[in-house]
Amino acid sequence: MLGAGGVIFAVAVLIYIRCLGGGVLWNDPDYLTTPALSSLHGLWRIWFEVGATQQYYPLLHSAFWVEHRLWGDAMPGYHLINVLLHAGVASLLGLVMRRLAIPGAFFAALVFAVHPVFAESVAWITEQKNTLSGVFFLASALTYLHFDQKRTPWLYAGALVLFVCAVLSKTVTAPLPAALLVILWWQRGSLSWKKDVLPLLPWFAIGAAAGLFSAWVERTYIGAFGAPFALSFGQRALIAGRVIWFYLGKLLWPANLIFIYPRWEVSSGVWWQYLFPLGVLGLLVALWRLRRVSRAPLAALLLFAGLLFPILGFFNVYAFVYSFVADHFLYLAAMPIIGLVAAVWDPNLEAAICRFRTRQDDASTFKAVLAVLVIGVLGLLTWRQSGMYTDQETFYRTIIGRNPMSWMAYNNLGDLLYAAGRNDEALVQYQKALLLNPNSQAHYNVGIVLAAEGRAAEAVAQYDEALRLKPDDPNIFYNRAVAEGRLGLLPGAVADYEAALRLEPDFPEAHNGLGFTLTYMGRLPEAINQCVRALRLNPDFRDARFNLGFALAAAGRFPEAIIQYQKALRLDPGFPEAHNYLGVALAAVGRFPEAAAQYQEALRLRPGYAEAAKNLEGIR
């Protein structure tokens, strides 16, 4: 299999070469190592501080930590590691099949390496949790199968350690012990409590604990609760049945793959939705009756459904806000189906290559040629699919093109355009998101763009609606306060800044905004106090330095104001307002030449700055 492994790695790199130059996508920044975690102490936090990372997958985040040490923010390295890990998973799949004496191992490994449904897991950096956990998952399975034959403690210990590594990379690997029992049943036709079940009991305990803990993290830290998850057990069963058929369909016919699929409307009152779970049950019954002919199809289906179990809908996963299905959820579960198809087909590619070298003809060569054509078609589809992951705008526009009802794609494309200063285009995208899903975030985003365009009154109306839907969001209160301040609605602005601070007391921007507003209302001691509190939270907060200087000057404390303006200018020498008001404070204490120099600098930075020109003229 060594030569076959080289072929698998080469094919994987060739197929995914387009994505090697891709950048960060969607939630990649939540997974890649942040500056706060890049130190040795950060590595300690990854392991021992729940919430320090997006999900508690410490081995995954340790891998990202090492990669960050090696190449920092250079994305090609992350992409290459993901491709190599994926090739490693494909090779291990072939080794497991060989260990089990299943025909078509090399073919199955190649199909896994090039199947387009896995493009999402390979081209999206975040899903290194799939490829890394997949390596540990299969390495653990392979080691345990060796243990099952030799019964040596070291093999058992090694398999268990690899299983723990898999779970610490991604907890969807938790069903591995159940999968091993299915494999042993397929091999033997029955299970022994002492030989088969008892050794795996600690594995079941570890998997169950990890799964429950992960579900708690998903709810507590990621927000997998609320209206989108208010589903009855019956509705969840309907989802589960449909999910199984959906993934089988995408695996066997990978057409119209989408990063975000439309979210199904699940209703226990719609009769045809019961056909999905009933179809699964019917298939299980049929395959059970056929077990005396062959246990393999039933084993493959049990493995498929079992490996999907964590994401069938019985547990809340935050991604269900957007869709109940995603290609990356299929990564592990696809293996038994690919293995079954490869075993039935059994093109025996390695033998076909030998026959080709010796120029010997054989009827099975046609089967091998057809298998190569299938691999080629799948590879071409994957090459095309990976193109959507090259940059964020292409990524979101591709999603919208394939799923025009994806409000999240419109929303995130709006974020991207707004960050690029393309406000008009961003507003269009946010408004589309708002039409599809009038949630708090959509109203908030529309308000942000309207405020940036100087349409403060319209922005306030959007913030009002956002707060009606989500009355405990300090950011919405803060931004409504800013807009109210621009409209001269100072009492309302003060009330909203205070509301934001009640919800989030350590909010430096809110303290600063409140201080600035109180200055204009003449409540100077309170204004000074708020600016000081903002600076305690963030000593390098330029605007808070400036606003503190402004409040001190309004209180007649010009020497202190001068110090604050100077500190603001050390943080940002190109701050024309700070130069102008420093000039005002210097003039107030009789330092006219220095004041003139500050006014001149303000005019140099902003030609036509009327206030600075007037102040300069006033001291000449």
Structural account:
The protein is mainly alpha-helical and 620 residues long. It has three domains: 2-32 and 73-386, no CATH class; 394-565, Tetratricopeptide repeat domain (Serine Threonine Protein Phosphatase 5, Tetratricopeptide repeat), CATH 1.25.40.10; 573-620, no CATH class. Helices cover 70% and strands 0% of the residues. Helix 9 packs parallel to helix 12 (201-222). It starts with a helix and ends with a helix.
Which terms would index this structure?
32 helices, mainly alpha, 0% strand, 620 residues, single chain, 3 domains, Serine Threonine Protein Phosphatase 5, Tetratricopeptide repeat
Average pLDDT across residues? 94
Give the termini separation. Answer: 88 Å
In DSSP terms, counting alpha (H) and pi (I) runs of 4 or more, how many helices?
32
Given as residue ranges, the uncertain stretches (5+ residues, pLDDT < 50) are 356-360
Radius of gyration: 31 Å
Structural class: mainly alpha
**What is the overall shape?**
elongated
Give a count of the beta strands, DSSP E runs of length 2 or more.
Answer: 0
Fold topology:
Layout: H1 2-15, H2 28-31, H3 40-48, H4 58-71, H5 75-99, H6 105-114, H7 119-123, H8 128-150, H9 153-169, H10 176-188, H11 193-197, H12 201-222, H13 233-252, H14 275-289, H15 296-308, H16 334-345, H17 349-357, H18 364-386, H19 392-402, H20 407-419, H21 423-436, H22 440-452, H23 456-469, H24 474-486, H25 490-503, H26 508-520, H27 524-537, H28 542-554, H29 558-571, H30 576-588, H31 592-605, H32 610-618
Helix pairs in contact: 1-5, 1-6, 4-9, 5-6, 5-8, 6-16, 6-18, 8-9, 9-12, 10-15, 13-14, 15-16, 17-18, 19-20, 20-21, 21-22, 22-23, 23-24, 24-25, 24-26, 25-26, 26-27, 26-28, 27-28, 28-29, 29-30, 30-31, 31-32
